Amino acid sequence: MQDLYYPSKDGKNTIHACLWEPQGEAKGVVQLIHGMSEYAERYAPFAEFLNKNGFIVCADDHLGHGKSVKSSEDLGYFNDAKDYSIVVEDIHELKIQVQKQTGELPWFVLGHSMGSFFCRKYISLYGTEFKGAVIMGSGFKGKATLNTALFFVKLNALFCGWRNRSKTIKKLAFGSYNKKFKPARTDNDWLSKAPENVDNYEADELCGFDFTNNGYYILFSIIKQACSKKVIKKIPKDLSVYFVAGEKDPVGDYGKGVIKAVNKFHRAGIKDVSVTLYDDCRHEILNDVCKEQVQADVLAFFEGVLDGREI
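The chain above was modelled as a monomer; its predicted structure follows.
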């Protein structure tokens, strides 16, 4: 793995990114967009799997995450402007930087969880630059729900500041996620059916940290963008899109939110939209009991697009 660094579009911070390259000639590049309260290097096993199958892989640590923070106080804090577009442009800058090394290879993008919503906005802006997109661990939320969430974040920030880490907002956002997994062993049982995966997440100091009000404001803002009809309509109609999620993932409302998002894409006229829901799997499907099948299915999607096969 190669470490990359480049200036953030916030004009203050430096973005850390990872680049994994295969031995021999590459047939394409996959850009990964990580989720909330995690970081790019967690995807090393998946990146190495793709390397073995001929793909270059890159991923950045978003502002407020991983090695893109100056201190632990910055974890869960994006930028002073409270602007989701800065994160999107940092993601796109990684593509620009890596293309200097890789040349004109076919590009794919995969976004997980929070990263799936950034990915959906990303492909509405730059989708013509990609052959395909994988939307992983995603879902759908209505405008009214998100406006209410944004109101409470702004209200809390008014009294407590944008760096405040509100237990109340965390509970409102994620408090119900463990309900279907009682008796829950930890607060994060909803992430994976495999206890060791949950334990690894909880033991990692760069995972599971509480978001600030600033972080939640951008999180809810990017979800609102990703779920809007206006943004979905801007996704290129000929871009191949593959939704993958755990059938027991609360982020996707146990499959219902995933199917709703898929239907929105279909109604927007996007021609090649497919979906796989993995039985008895939860949120982090690349770290769950289905991970080998997920890897195989995502690889088949990439190779199928390159070969011109219908997925």
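The CA atoms of residues 35 and 114 lie 5 Å apart.
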